[in-house]
Predict the structure.
Amino acid sequence: MYDGVIQDLIDELGQLPGVGPKSAQRIAFHLLAADPEDVKRLSVVLADLKEKVKICTLCGNVAETEMCRICADPRRDITLICVVEEPKDVQAVERTREFRGRYHVLGGAINPIAGIGPDNLRIKELLQRLADGVVQEVILATDPNLEGEATATYLMRMLSPMGLHVSKLASGLPVGGDLEYADEITLGRAFEGRRTLTS
Amino acid sequence: MYDGVIQDLIDELGQLPGVGPKSAQRIAFHLLAADPEDVKRLSVVLADLKEKVKICTLCGNVAETEMCRICADPRRDITLICVVEEPKDVQAVERTREFRGRYHVLGGAINPIAGIGPDNLRIKELLQRLADGVVQEVILATDPNLEGEATATYLMRMLSPMGLHVSKLASGLPVGGDLEYADEITLGRAFEGRRTLTS
């Protein structure tokens, strides 16, 4: 146990995800030895975080203004929506440079064990966005796990009577992976979704 | 790339030791979803860090006052000094509950590649502490690596004319370790430092 502030800092850092007591101590002593300006900047950013970061009123992504950068971009295709669980998933899709539409961030996935039902997600907001008939296609890009699949199935049922084109990201072998090490479910999905190469 | 503050926070967190871009993003979103009080507390502790944490004028350990808790403790044996590299080494020795003397924190080890020579360490302060003849024994507890060994050898030479009892921590097999997996230098040291069991 250290004295006062340094121990407080170690305790606070130890609460962060993926930071154990050893890392917390290492980071604390790093900060103690670091340039005071660097430490101050981190402190200020943390103080600003809750005030400055907003949620985009349209898509639910993180934003600094009423509307996020993507929703505010006039070059985006407004007839296309990609539904994801979290803001970090938006970044993941953006990195592919494959998608030119807008997003809808649900804020999680259906998870009865954690007490998260459809009402806890931004599904009502999605249906409102689809009401005016501008959007033609919805791509479901929830995580390929139990909760994500359940959410996609739920959304599919909600959206099917609306006459939209609804699709889901392909499951299959990851690029650069090894067939031998693929789990049986992934390999099964890869078979199921196989693409015809000859006409 | 995210907008504004959230990206600033990810960038700042990514500078910390052992925190990569993925962890930085995870921590940033954890903080965004966390209780505002928790985030504020971390921000305040960081702001206080440089102001409140002092260096003990006697031993060089981290302290909240002029003198650290250990140096200020009258139950400590003032004839005994354990020399360590960093404040975290003080904590490591304290955890053993084997040592009842005081410490001297050098603030690093001799490392010519990083440009750290004896003058950059608190060696002058150590010699000043030893000048009045109260201290009888000095235990060198620098790290068992190249820089630590070099520092211990340097200190040994400086202290040997002073008529003190100078010792160094034992090198050997770590308790709970496996002889088979010990590196040859450690095993060599264990042979060199073997203890006679029969009289």
